[in-house]
Structure formats: structure tokens, C-alpha cells
Predict the 3D structure of the following.
Amino acid sequence: MNSVELIPLVLPIINSGDDIGLQIIDSINEIGYEVCEGDIFVIAHTIISRAEDREFYIPSLSPSPTAEIIARKTGKDASLVELILREASQIIKVQNNIIITKTVHGWICANSAVDQSNAQPNCAVTLPIDSNKSAEIIGKKLSIHFDKNISVIISDTHGRALRRGAINVAIGSYNFSVLDNVVGREDIFGYELKSTMIALADEVCSAAELVMGQADEMTPVIIIKGLEQRSPVSNIEELQFDDARRLFK
């Protein structure tokens, strides 16, 4: 049985224009960690969004008539609702104080993943424009600097439709087996698995969340050491069902 180790990295507060890759390198050097072949870096999207100028001052946003209507229905600030709508390609459901949308990135989640936690006062953070590209830029920088084959996953905390509580999931990746296809492998009784696909990227992000935290931990990057990737590199979009295949709508 393989053992997996999780190493948290402390980073300073990230501002617009900061180089996340360089911040990670500085943090690694500070703790004296030796980057290994196959290390996986899980990065909270919030720091990437802030570095990429995706933090918005809510009072500066002018709410549309639709935002005003939804704000009255949900009790949310109308300017915040406006930001949620700007990040949405489709409004799926509005109930109580929750707005379920399909984001412009294709994710179905609450409030278009617009988040006020770990944002500056009166601000909210949206998802990066292209989390895969962000992961690639950071991943290549780290790989070249440390001369190792590494992977990067960008994470976000999402709720679940049929279970209480939020978990960390993957929204972007670089050089990672997002889906682990175990079809054809045998279980302990020799039964050949016929259809099992493991959402490995989501499992890794949830593991990282155990030490990453949600509050004032200041550890938005987790190195996962010792995880074996048994399937080929795949794209983060493969985690999503298209509209025709969704069982719950």
C-alpha cells in the first residue's frame, strides 16, 4: 500500500499581478522541502483569481433589473447578484438565498462560485478566466525551476446537490490524470470492474482541503507526495456531464 503525504505551504496575502509560481518557489525554499518527481501541487483558486485581477469591489457594480429582482427574492445584495449573473451562462434555480447557475466555464454550482471569503472588505472573488491555463503556467514554471515532472490542480469549494456540506473539487489542471479509469482491473474476489471511473482530481482536492482549511490558515497551496497516477493525463472538462447526460436537472 502506498502512503501519501500532504505538505502545506504558507504564502503571503496575494495581490493583483503577483507571480504565484514565484511565491510557491520562495515558500518551498523557506521550509527546505525537496520537490520530488511526481509531486502534485493543489492550489486554491482564490489566490490565482486575486493575482489575475478577478477580485471585484461590490459597491462599484451597477445591478441590472434582473439582479434587482433576484436580490429581492434571495435577500442578497443586488450588486453581488449582478456579479453572480455576469459569471453565469445560465440561471438554473433560485430558491431561498441560493442561486444555482451554470458558470461561463461550464460548472454548475451555487452563486456562480462567486466568493466573499478570503476577499478584501466589500469585495468578492470570481473564478479565474481559464483555470487550466493558469495551472499550466504555474506547472511549467515549477517543473523548469525544480527540474521535476510535477502536476498542478486548481481547486474550489463546492456544495453538493444531494448531500450536506461542501468539499474541495478540481476546476483546472495541468499534467494530471483527472479521471482514473479502473475498467478491466480486478477486485479482491477476482471480479473484473466494468465501468468504474474515479474522479481522482476531486479526491486529491478533498484530501488537500484537510490541511488547506477555509479560514485564516494562510496555506492555500498543498503539495501531495507519493500519489501514483495510473491513468493517462486527462482534461478537467471530462469531469462534467454534458446537459443530455445529466440525471438531475
Q: What stands out?
A: DSSP finds six helices and twelve strands in the chain. The first strand starts at residue 5 and ends at 9.
